[in-house]
Amino acid sequence: MFRMYLAAVFLLLSHWAQAQDHIEGVIVDADNGMPLPGANVYIEEIEKGTVADREGQFSLEGLNKENYTLRVTFVGYQTHRLTVPVSSGKSLLIRLIPQTLTTEEFIVTGTRASATTPTTFQMIDKEALSKNNLGQDLPLLLNYTPSIVTHSDAGAGVGYTGLRIRGTDQTRINVTVNGIPLNDAESHGVFWVNMPDFASSVENIQIQRGVGTSTNGAATFGASLNIQTDTKKEEAYAETDHSFGSFNTRKHTVKAGSGLINDRWAVDARLSRISSDGYIDRAFSDLKSYFVSGGYFGDDHVFKVNVFSGSEQTYQAWNGVPENLLKSNRTYNGYTYENETDNYQQDHYQFIYAGNWGSNMKANFALHYTQGQGYYEQFRPDDNLPDNYGIEPISIGNELINSTDIIRRRWLDNDFYGAVFSLNYVSTDGKLDAIVGGGANRYDGDHFGEIIWMGVTGGTNIRDRYYDNVAVKDDRNLYLKTTYEVQDRLYLFADLQWRNIYYRFNGINSDLRDISGSQDYNFFNPKLGISYETGNGKTLYASYAVANREPVRADFTDSPLTEIPRPEKLNNVEAGLRVNKTRYQYSANLYYMGYKDQLVLTGQLNDVGAYIRENVASSYRAGIELDAAVVVAPRWTLGGNIALSRNKIDSFTEYNDVYDENWGFAGQESTTYSDTDIAFSPGLVSSAIIDFRPLENMEISLLNKYVGRQYLDNTQKEDRSLDPFWTTDLRLSYNWSPGWVRELNFSLKVNNVFNELYEPNGYTFSYFVPNEGANGRELVTENYYYPMAGTNFLGGVSIRF
């Protein structure tokens, strides 16, 4: 009886579902019939919409009129409007026509890989970013892409965060925004804390692993991130996003746009604020940002202005947690001074032109200017005045005071400006696709320090600078990229880049040394490859690329000019397969990255007592990366990736300080190691994601991440390493279109569900001290770690009007 009753209930539900009026269909490219996942379908009469799934399919239910007007949009395609009857019993086939003018997309084409480019890359779209965008910085939003390991100083993903790709850190990962360099010209790093909530203004990101294609700015020495900001929206919109979570984390975002005005003009704006107390004690963050974009969108030409800014105040958690406190006090912060903070603001201005110059030529030009200014403040107990600040001992009565408590600020005031361009020619028969591009950029940075308070004051004033130096760096490059179809679906690729760097610096460094000097570099970076499209959604590719990279600021300032390290060189081979089918996709690639003169810290001191980086003659990274996603059932999708690698230095010499019985410095001792792992380069990194849609507008995802052992230095000693870890996150989202607003989205993300205690980042140093043992001394190793939070959550609501 129970089974009969249950069957009857399902039968009634089935009839009820069939009785609901609905519209369904599939959206494809008009030229090749490929589905367009992510295309937007909107019913204008009732302001209700949906998004096409991975197969381009959509369904709108609960309709009660006979006819509705659908508006179908997708980036890079013409808007399509049609009036359709409800419950016609037929599935619609909607063919979108590619726009003749794709100028906004061309803004980033010059520095991106295309479907036929023989290199390893992955696209991350706005939808994928928004699923996790609840307040954490951009690196954490990319955590589940192949070969990536992320970390956070404060342990909660807000504030100072970073990522490594294939074991290479942020200083070796080239980042551009609309083709404009973002890496700091001197350190080569990217400080995401200066760009809070930037992901809310990003249209898509292309991640290229390996050398990739030629780009502007710092050399790609492991990967590149090519970011395109929001493109124009045809319809006016407004939305507000609010999220709250553990450690008093809050994010508030307001966005609005005019849509196209007179089919030509559009303005978009965003205002954001993010705050968090951090997982680590006192490691708070107070972050503010805005993004404004406006432009003219003609039939053949686009003129666009982007202005965006970020300001941050973060309490310093740079020192990490010492190993002896890791189990008893994971949130330890050695800083206690209330204003031990980093304070910085960075303003970006971009003027961009893109257009069609006839039927075969497209052009892109951009002018840019970035102004940054800020300081970090430090309390220094009993600091030595003559040695560290050049201040003569202070005489009080008969006493000479050489040291006292001070509060200092170390400032950076810099300007970065220049121009980038690209010209794209496509032959009439479509066989030749050539891009000529490049850029010229200048960095002008002023580094100086001030003492703003002293326990005992002498003849100094609050704005006196105890060090002051100026650096100017010119970076120019030209490249030529060509793809030629030698026969049906067989493509040859060549990419030749010349890059010149002229770096000069003048003044007194923070250690009171005169660092005046200059360096000039010329690099040639060729790339060659071949790709073949089989015609059934498969692409085979192979490439060889060369990259050269100049030393960073610290290599110049910490070394006498006669001992500056040599530039690094990378030879990169990539070979792989990409497959895109309606219900599944996967990629597999092999890579080899051979380094000559890679720069690493060895512990060695120069003649002025500063730790310097040394060139390692030969080292390499080699591995295989697999990435796949499959729709196993209408409501279930499985995805994941795995990267297996071997990362080795042929010969590495470590230098350790030696102290005598009075703890005086007595020199250094060296130890040579062979065939050791490169620091922070795990042999295994993998992710697995399970997506389940119990309802059409509800998604539940289980996200898993595994990172193998990472060594803190290049000695491959297990007592100087980060333990492997496996984390699991749970993500839930629910979309609702109530009618009085266009859409409500509720989301919840539970990070580290199983409360894994792990540390993805740290540092180490060792030294010899006297000991009564046989050797009369012992080696002491000190490890410091940056722990991540245990189980924590972020929940949010987005309202779109």
From TrEMBL:
Q: Which residues form the signal peptide?
A: 1-19
Domain called TonB-dependent receptor-like beta-barrel: residue spans: 316-753
Please name the PROSITE patterns in this protein's record: TONB_DEPENDENT_REC_3 (PS52016)
InterPro entries the UniProt entry points to:
Beta-barrel_TonB, Beta-barrel_TonB_sf, CarboxyPept-like_regulatory, Plug_dom, Plug_dom_sf, TonB-dep_rcpt-like
Limits of the TonB-dependent receptor plug domain: 116-222
Where is this gene product found? Cell outer membrane
Q: Does the keyword Nucleus apply?
A: no
Bilayer disposition of the protein: Multi-pass membrane protein
Q: What is its main location?
A: membrane
Asked if the keyword Transcription belongs to this entry, the reply reads no
What does the UniProt keyword field contain?
Cell outer membrane, Ion transport, Iron, Iron transport, Membrane, Receptor, Signal, TonB box, Transmembrane, Transmembrane beta strand, Transport
State the family it belongs to: Belongs to the TonB-dependent receptor family.
- Which protein are we looking at? TonB-dependent receptor
Instruction: Say which species the protein is native to.
Output: Cyclobacterium plantarum
